[in-house]
Structure formats: C-alpha cells, structure tokens
Amino acid sequence: MPVAFIIKEAIPEKPIAEIWVTVVTGAGGDLKDAGGVFPDVAIWDDNGNRIGRHRTKLGDKRAQSSERTVKIPNNENNGQISDPQYVMLSHGTDATCIAMVQVSNGRLSGTVNADTGYKCDQGWYYSQRKFKCDNLMAKCVWLDLDHSHPNFNARAMSFHLRDMLPSPDK
Fold first, then answer.
1. Environment class of 39 (CB within 10 Å of its CB; exposed 0-12, middle 13-18, buried 19+)
2. CA gap 102, 107 in Å, rounded
3. Cα–Cα distance list, 67 to 29, 91, 127, 156, 165 (Å)
4. Does the reported pTM lie above 0.90?
C-alpha cells in the first residue's frame, strides 16, 4: 500500500475474525455535500464465500472530509479468520462521494482510492482531501442509488483486494 493511504489505527494489530473497513469521504474547493449515508459493505473470500457484511442503519450519515471504520464480524463463515478478497460497497440513499476505502483483518490489508473508480468511468469529482502529504489528493467517486444527478452513474463499487496490492509485475 502507498504509505500516504494507510490509516494505521484502522488496521488490527494481529489477524482477527473480523474485517475493518474504513471509508473516507471527499472534500474541499467547490465540492459541496460530499458526505452522505455510509454504504452497505459485503466481503467475500477467494472462493466466493461471503465472510460478512455491514448493513447501514437509516440515518447513518457521514460528513464530507470524514472517515469511519466499521468492524464486520466473520459471522457468515462460522467465525473463521478469512482474508478479505472481494469487497463491495453499495448505496441505498443520499449520494456520497468516496475518496478512499481501506480494508484489513490484521493479516491482509489494502486500500483503493477513487482514482481507480475514475479510471473505470465512475462519476467523480475533484476532491481536495489530502492524505499524509501535502501534494497527494485523490478524486472522489459518487455512489448513489437513484442517479439523482446526471453524472452519478454508480450504485455500487467492488474490487479484488489483492489487485490493489503493489507488486513488481504491475
């Protein structure tokens, strides 16, 4: 992981039977109302077995330029320690602009920033949310159920965590 995108306090100290997912919202400049309802999160292992999920409660809003970590118990795989391989964030209401997502179980950790969603043609905006160094700013991508704005084209985003890890062949 690029060091600038690591939120150390959102990584368990040892492997545990829960997954910590941190969602960071965008902010700054002309960007207004980037906060919104925290997304639902579902996590699967490499065999496609769901490990656990977080269902957002009505009214669970995040402000723009905020971050929140949810701890998802491994309650759909008998509580075994499993690596979070596939991650999906989905949205029900109130568009939210997401700058970064970090996922960890203490053994496998990774981040995806919104520049990845931008490259995949997801609706985005220039965010001025800064990460641990003054010159590194990620865009933010919009998640919205009803596409209430013509540029909001995604209800969900998903990624394979290992694809986000640095390696010499990438």
1. buried
2. 13
3. 18, 17, 14, 18, 21
4. no
Cα separation of 128 and 140, whole Å?
9
Instruction: Give residue 27's pLDDT band: very low, low, confident or very high (50, 70, 90).
Output: confident
Tokens of 115: 């520049």
CATH of residue 115: 2.60.60.20
| Least confident among 67-76, 98-107, 143-152 | 143-152
Q: In terms of residue numbers, what domain contains 131?
A: 3-163
Beta-ladder partners of 66: none
Number of domains forming the structure of the chain: 1
In a domain, 22, yes or no: yes
